[in-house]
Amino acid sequence: MIHTICVHGVLQDAVGTATYGALVTRPTGAAVRGKLREVIAREPFPTTYLDFGAVGMMDFSCADEVIAKLLQESGTDGDSFVVLTGLNEEMWDAVNGVLCRQELSVVGQRRHQDTLHLLGWTTPDMEAVFAAVHTVGAGNTLHLAAHLEWTLDRTVDILQRLALRRLLHAADGTFRPLSTL
Amino acid sequence: MRVVNVPPSLDHHAINALAESIGAWPPEGRLLFDARGTTWASPSGLTALLTAGQALIEAGLDRPRLALPAQDDVRSYWARAGFFTNATECFELHGKVPRRQADTTSDVLLPVMPIRASEDVHLVVSRIQEAAARILTHELRIAAKATMRFAMTLSEACQNVIEHAGTGGWVAVHAYTWRKRLGKRVVVIAVSDAGVGFRRSLEATEARRHGDRWNDRTALESALIHGVSRFRDPGRGQGLSGIKHFLQDWQGKISIRSGTARLSIVPPWDDDVPMAEGLPFFPGAQLQIVIPAQEEA
Question: What is the rounded (10 degree) CA torsion for B271, B272, B274, B277?
Answer without folding.
Answer: 140
